[in-house]
Design goal:
Layout lengths: L6 E5 L4 H9 L4 E5 L10 H7 L8 E6 L4 H11 L3 E4 L5 H11 L3 E6 L3 H7 L1 H6 L2 E5 L26 E4 L8 H8 L3 E4 L4 E3 L2 E2 L1 H12 L2
Parallel strand pairs: 1-2, 1-8, 2-3, 3-4, 4-5, 5-6, 6-7, 7-8
Antiparallel strand pairs: 9-10
Helix pairs in contact: 1-8, 2-3
């Protein structure tokens, strides 16, 4: 029997082969990146085609970086995502504003460097956002950098809200990451790519199998 110790989110899916692999392997969240600077960027029209047979089991997450209201409206109209992921410098007030205006649950990505971040940085977001992604801090692009951070700082992390571990996860380090942090969910992107920006369907399959059999 597959055990489901934690939920799996695969971020940056941008073609038919990888969305099929994610759906066939019952991934919990499928992340679509709407951010021009990202190698995983997808157009709204292409995303619309990919999710036309959207599954019940996989939630669709629309990742944006400092989005305007107009852009969010386009996404809501065309994609009807289950979650909006905010992965830029959006403060707690902006998160709250978007959540209320668009009536869509919010996932917020936060770069974690040390214990202080966990104590002070996360708190205001916990009150507002539905899920937090705790990621390696990035100087370049938000997310998907394959950088890992010191998981020990999340060792006994208790949160009011569901949170996801992200940052440099792959098939070789996932069991260590889970052992240390025991997260309710994980978020993986570049760790499932052989070529930058494109998910590998076999890696998706192997990774999910490993996660479900830890």
């Amino acid at each position: 029997i597959m055990n489901k110790l934690f939920e799996i989110k695969i971020c940056g899916i941008n073609n038919q082969i990888s969305i099929d692999a994610a759906i066939n392997n019952s991934v919990d969240y499928i992340g679509l990146v709407f951010y021009k600077e990202s190698p995983r960027n997808i157009s709204i029209s292409k995303a619309k085609v990919l999710i036309r047979n959207r599954p019940e089991i996989s939630k669709i997450v629309a990742l944006t970086v400092n989005p305007s209201d107009n852009f969010l409206l386009e996404i809501k109209k065309n994609i009807e995502p289950d979650f909006i992921q905010l992965h830029g410098e959006e403060g707690p007030n902006r998160c709250k504003d978007i959540r209320e205006k668009f009536n869509i649950p919010i996932i917020k990505g936060i770069g974690i460097e040390n214990d202080m971040n966990i104590k002070y940085l996360i708190k205001p977001y916990e009150e507002i956002c539905d899920i937090l992604i705790l990621d390696a801090p990035s100087k370049e692009l938000p997310g998907g950098n394959g950088k890992k951070f010191d998981w020990e700082i999340l060792k006994n992390h208790k949160s009011k809200k569901k949170w996801m571990l992200a940052g440099g996860l792959n098939i070789n380090n996932i069991s260590e990451a889970i052992d240390i942090t025991k997260p309710p969910a994980i978020d993986i992107s570049s760790g499932l790519e052989k070529d930058k920006g494109t998910k590998d369907p076999q890696l998706i399959k192997d990774f999910v199998f490993k996660c479900r059999n830890l």
